[in-house]
Structure formats: C-alpha cells, structure tokens
Amino acid sequence: MIDSYARFRAYCRRVACGPAEDRFELFLNFRTPFIIASIMTTPKTEKRKPVSYSDSGVSIDSANEAVKKISGFAKSTFNARTLTNIGSFGGMFNGSFPDMSEPILVASADGVGTKLKIAFETNIHNTIGQDLVNHCVGDILVQGAKPLFFLDYFATGKLSADVTASVVEGLSIACKETGCVLLGGETAEMPGFYSDGEYDLAGFIVGVVDKSKVIDGKNIEAGDVILGLPSVGLHTNGYSLARNLFFEIGGYGVDDRPESLGGDSVGEVLLKPHRSYLPVLEGLLDKGVIKGLAHITGGGLLENIPRVLPENTSAEIKRGTWNELPVFDAMQKLGNVETQEMFRTFNMGIGMTIVCSEGDKEQIISHAKGLGEECFEIGTVVDGSGEVILV
Asked: Among 99, 179, 212, 284, which residue has the least CB neighbours within 10 Å?
C-alpha cells in the first residue's frame, strides 16, 4: 500500500507541469478505479410503498364525511344576512345596520373548560356546543349587544364524524335559539396531540349594539338594586374543582345518583347546559332600565360583579334571597370547601346579575315573570372599594 502511494506521488510530480493530455491520463488512471469501487459498493435502494396523509393519522375522507354531516346543522342557522355557503374560505355577513345610528361591534371568545371531560365520560356531545354558544352570548349581552354570528374551533387527535356532528348540532341549537348565524369554523385533526376520544372546543362571537344603548355600568351608584337571574347548574365554570370533589374525594362515577342531588346522576347534573339569558333580557335592552349586567362565570359572584361597578362602590349580596341549587351544597360538604371559595369559584345558582335603580326594579321583575322566569332581588350597591360582601 505504501509502495503504491509512493509511485502515485512520483507520477503526479512528473505530469503536474506537463501537457494537458498527461493530466487527463492521470485522472483516468487513478480516479476511475475509485469511481467503479464506489458504484459497486453502493447499497441497492428497495422500492417503498407510497406514504399517505392517512398513514400519518390524518384522514381527509373522515374530514369530508364530517363536513357533510355538519353542513345541515350550520345551514339551519343561516338568515338573510348570510352571504356565503359552507365550504367558503371565509364567512361573509351583511354588515349594514340601517336601524342604528352608530352601530358598535362587540366580540368575545371562550371555551368550555374541563366540562368537556364530563362529555367524554358520558359520551354525550350534543349539549357541549350549547354551553359554548350561550356562554359567549352572555359575555356580549352584558354590554347590550345582540349576537350576529358565531365561529367555532374543534380539534381532536382522531376525527370521528359522528362526534363532530353531535358537537355542531349543539352549536346550531343554541345559535337558532339566540338568532345567531353559525357562519363558519375549523375542524382540526392532530394525531398524538389529544388522548383517544378527547377533543377541545372554542368559540368566537360577534354582536352589535347601538352606541347610545351600550350598557357599561358608569351610572351605577350606591342605593341601586342588584337582581339575579337563576342558573341551572355550574354552567361552564368550576369543573376542575367539581370533578375533584365528586370523582376523587367522593368516589362517584357519572352514573351514580347520590341522595344529595335529588335523584339525578352526577353526569346529568354536571352536564346541564349553560342557559341563555338573551330571551329574558332582550326586551329590556332598549328600555333604559338596566344600568349594569354581570355574567357570573369564572370567578363567581365575588369576581364578576366588581367588573361592572364604578370606583368607590361595592356590592352587598344577601344569602338566602335565591335558591342555591343542591349541587353546590353537595360539593361544599364533600370537600369541606370554605364559603368564600365556593362563591369565587361557582355561580352558586345565579347566572346573570342586573343592576338597576330602586324605581325600575319592579318593571324588570315583572317583565321576567311575564316570560315565566324567576328574578330575585339579591343585593344592593353600597359605598365601598369594588368588593362583594356576603351578608
């Protein structure tokens, strides 16, 4: 090997400055064997089976099937303002408001949180969409806005057309009840991102209110009355604590019927849909009798009422003036939860509060009762520093 290398070096020196044909001869004599050896030692490449998107866990066929199933639900919410059909890249909506002098758009986004876990456990998926829409409707309603259109985002690890359709069915039910168009959405299949059988859901809503009729709480003052519209359950908040109390501490399953829940199963109670407050409040929005509204969601009465109070005011809430649902008492006893913690986690039976003057309260209560709705006088606005005092 050493001798061959020495002869190669000597030959290179001899032809390095020689004619071009000598240099070409050098290339052929010494480069060609290496090329041939390289070709002979290169491994053969086996022909592979073509890889598709579905091999990676994403089924376009399943997505198309889901679209077919949900199209009818979405279309059932369309109205004269809807300018596009299912499948468009963007949803188009007529934005003219001739009856308003200065229309203001109000937007909000939210999710359902770990209430989704109850849907997974019970395999009931057609109520969770109602939760999402009604929650978002309530969030823009507090500023006096009525819903225009809604968009959803549904994501899962492995797409089930039936589950997807069931969720969208719930969205469409609530959209029709509130006069809101389900204008579009996104369905995402992301293998390995979610546990089997699980999904996430989020929603985005846009509503409108005439600027002169915006409800912002700025005229609230000490002496005003706080009214409460009842909830039907936990709505969409506090489920991480609720699941811990019922399933971990209490040892219950979703089908168990503890005596403390009055004969209902744990799953039935926890899955009750978030109710909409638009039907009871819609007829009051233009009357000028509502000074402030607070949607009692995450943070409960203690955290949400202060969001609409002016500086130098507080709220006094009188326990016993409304019906606290059995589920809240059951949870408090299961975990020996402090009352303050209960009231800043759960709605405690009140889903929406109305602040009005003493002189307007009877009109509001009478309006609600005329619609078959309960409306409780639960507190008073007092001088203070933006807190809620339970008495």
From this structure: 99
